[in-house]
Amino acid sequence: DSELQCDGNRSGHLQNGEIGFGAPVNEDVIRLIAAHLAEIGDKLDKDVQMRVVNDLAQHFLNENLSREEIMRQMSRVVRELAQAAPSDMEQEKVMLVLTMILVKKIGNTVPSLLQRVWNTAVNFINQQFHDYIVEMVSA
C-alpha cells in the first residue's frame, strides 16, 4: 500500500489523506497545483541562462563554502531571476518554480552535484515557502 518505488515515490494514496504538513488535502488539488507549477516552469525555463546556472554550480562545487553561504547564493539567484518574471504571476510561485528549474539545470549540467543541490533546494523551500505551500495545498 505504501511501498517505496525505485524512483523514491511511495505507491498508493497519501496516508490518511495527509501530506507531510499534517493538514488533510485533496489529491485532485495537488495535481492541479502541480500542473500549474509545471506550466509556469515551462514559461520560465527558457529565461534561466546557462551562465547563471554555471555560476551557481561553481558555488556548489566550492567545498570551502558553508551550507548557509550556498543557501544565500541560491536565494540571491532565485530572487534576481524572479525580478525578470512577468508581474502577473505570484512571486512565491515564481520563486518556488525557479528553485526547481535551477535544481534541474544544475543536475543536468553537473550530475555529481544533484544530491547536494537537491538537499539545499529542499532546505531553501522549507525555510522560504513552507507557509505558502501549506496554504496552497489546503485551499
Automatic annotation (TrEMBL):
Pfam families: BID. InterPro entries: Bcl-2-like_sf, BID. GO terms for cellular component: cytosol; mitochondrial outer membrane. Its main location: cytoplasm. Keywords: Apoptosis, Cytoplasm, Membrane, Mitochondrion, Mitochondrion outer membrane. It is found in: Cytoplasm; Mitochondrion outer membrane. This is BH3-interacting domain death agonist. It comes from Sclerurus mexicanus. The lineage of its organism: Eukaryota, Metazoa, Chordata, Craniata, Vertebrata.
